Amino acid sequence: MKKIRKCQICSSYTLETEHCGKITVSSHPSPYKPQDKYAVYRREKRC
Ligand SMILES: [Zn+2]
Asked: How many alpha carbons lie under 13 Å from residue 25 in its C-beta half-sphere?
């Protein structure tokens, strides 16, 4: 199973371990954390 990686030079996603002559970093698809989700909920409830 290949994981998507991201090039820190051109900010493009790739499956290659190298891009633009640099080692790419693994990108974790987790846009939000549970703690952040609760924080947003509390903020909306307060309004
Ligand atoms: Zn690149």
From this structure: 7
